[in-house]
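PROTEIN DESIGN WORKSHEET
SECTION A - STRUCTURE
LENGTH: 295
TOKENS:
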């Protein structure tokens, strides 16, 4: 099996990847990126001699725009799209996703994400936990992986674990950081997922943001440590009576300094900010703690 890392160049190089798998003449694509990077995805496929219509199997880890936004375009080219059971309804009818994102991004919606169109039922398949999806002479194991989103899967094939967002964001050689946007952050579920990943003993991790990472046990430990540190920072601020608006600049300064301390240069820090917007991470963690505190 061969793995091609396709850089979708979302706002800059090295922030969002699609992964093309080749096995005995069969092709599968893991993650499509947003609709806004569809021209770049087509160009990246062409660079390895592949047309969109050659791909018959598409797998998305979850339905957020930067992971599944262009899935409908591959479906129009004839592909079958595999998605977590809780995400299937959103690909069949993306109106709620579009409405929610438009409220957040307003007039930047098209520029950042493009659009989504419904995927017909006959081009959608449910990727159940434990299912094995054939690609040529190999199989991908579906690994339900909650914590970042309630509709999140990872995919294991020949020791390679494609982790979406729940395996963290790792730009270049920088640290592995947790994306914590609203509305589904669940620390307990996330830590269980990391335990599940450790038990699989993968040879390499392939986060969507961005690229192959070895030393997998070290990466998963670092991610868990960062997740707890981020959640602890927000919890302490809430306990001190600070609101979300006050916490945002404080968290941004704190998180940026952690990147500086880790030796990440300004270009690398900007790439992290593109892949991992700090304000949304605050919103997600505030929501998590408020839900925990609710009677």
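SECTION B - SEQUENCE
RESIDUE ASSIGNMENT:
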């Amino acid at each position: 099996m061969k793995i091609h890392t396709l850089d979708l160049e979302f706002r800059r190089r090295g922030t969002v990847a699609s992964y093309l798998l080749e096995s005995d003449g069969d092709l599968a694509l893991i993650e499509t990126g947003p609709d806004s990077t569809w021209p770049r995805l087509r160009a990246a496929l062409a660079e390895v001699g592949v047309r969109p219509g050659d791909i018959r199997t598409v797998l998305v880890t979850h339905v957020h725009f930067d992971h599944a936004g262009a899935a409908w375009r591959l479906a129009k080219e004839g592909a079958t799209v595999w998605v977590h059971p809780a995400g299937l309804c959103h690909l069949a009818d993306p109106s709620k996703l579009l409405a929610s994102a438009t409220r957040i991004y307003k007039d930047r919606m098209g520029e950042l994400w493009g659009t989504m169109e419904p995927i017909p039922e006959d081009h959608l398949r449910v990727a159940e936990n434990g299912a094995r999806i054939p690609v040529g002479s190999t199989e991908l194991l579906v690994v339900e992986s909650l914590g970042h989103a309630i509709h999140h899967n990872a995919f294991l094939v020949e020791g390679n674990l494609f982790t979406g967002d729940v395996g963290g964001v790792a730009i270049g050689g920088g640290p592995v950081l947790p994306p914590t946007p609203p509305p589904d952050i669940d620390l307990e579920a996330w830590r269980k997922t990391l335990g599940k990943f450790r038990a699989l003993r993968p040879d390499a991790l392939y986060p969507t943001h961005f690229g192959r990472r070895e030393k997998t046990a070290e990466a998963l430990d670092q991610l868990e440590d960062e997740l707890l540190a981020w959640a602890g920072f927000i919890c302490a601020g809430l306990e001190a009576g600070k609101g979300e608006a006050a916490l945002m600049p404080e968290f941004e300064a704190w998180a940026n300094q952690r990147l500086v301390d880790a030796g990440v240069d300004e270009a690398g820090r900007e790439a992290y900010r593109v892949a991992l917007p700090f304000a949304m991470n605050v919103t997600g963690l505030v929501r998590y703690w408020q839900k925990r505190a609710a009677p």
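SECTION C - NOTES
The chain has eleven helices and eleven strands.
The first strand starts at residue 2 and ends at 7.
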